[in-house]
Amino acid sequence: MKFDVVHGDVTVAQTSKEPRDRVRDLIVGELKRDRGYQWKDIAQIVQICDMDGAFIPESLVLAGETDAIEYREDRILTGKTESIRLRNRRKSESLRKLSSISCLTYQKHEVPYRIYYFSRNMEHALHNRSGSLSNSEKSKLAQSFRRRFANDLPQFKAFMRSPEVAVPGDYRDTWDAVQNGVSSLRRGSNLHLAIPE
CB count, 10 Å around CB of 174? Predict the structure, then answer.
């Protein structure tokens, strides 16, 4: 079994391509970098995304004192309100589409697909850190998380399924829940659903 990480947020791309095609094209592009396997070798595609408040009402993206994005539990503050509202429209539309598909096809070969989320983002969901963090701080948190659970699968499962992190319900329920009100700003994840019993 092999896992590859592909970075980038295909949900906000300014393109006429459907989100499904953007994800597939990104993966095919990575495969062309000679990763040692082909599309037909992929058992499953699991995409993990940050919510970034994508589903909040546009009226809750409010003018802030700077252009930086400040996430709160019930609103987003920024000097670039229209830009963030546009990002949220693109992202929420893409996520609605991606969460409704179950496979991606390339050269007539279907691969099971699911998209899971961290809300508001990975640092918030896994570490309850809601402030603005540098890339260095994010990296340190990720390393700390990896060290904490690398050799303890039962503890990892318990943490991901804990009420502090896990959004209750099945796959569809969790996607319906995160689209309600300000839920995409609140702490939570549906990644526990991807973890086998």
Answer: 24
Contact 165, 145 (CB under 8 A): no
- For the chain, the residue count is 197
Distance between CA 168 and CA 192 in Å, rounded?
Answer: 10
Q: Which residues pair with 113 in a beta bridge?
A: 45
Q: Is pLDDT of 3 > 70? A: no
Supply the DSSP string of 76-121, one letter for each residue.
EEES-HHHHHHHHHHHHHHHHHHTT--EEEETTEEEEEEEEEEES-
Instruction: Tell me 166's DSSP state.
Output: B
**pLDDT per position as a tens digit, 69-111:** 999 999 999 999 999 999 999 999 999 999 999 999 999 999 9
Q: pTM above the 0.85 mark?
A: yes
Alpha helices in the chain (DSSP H): 19-31, 81-98, 122-127, 135-149, 153-160, 171-178
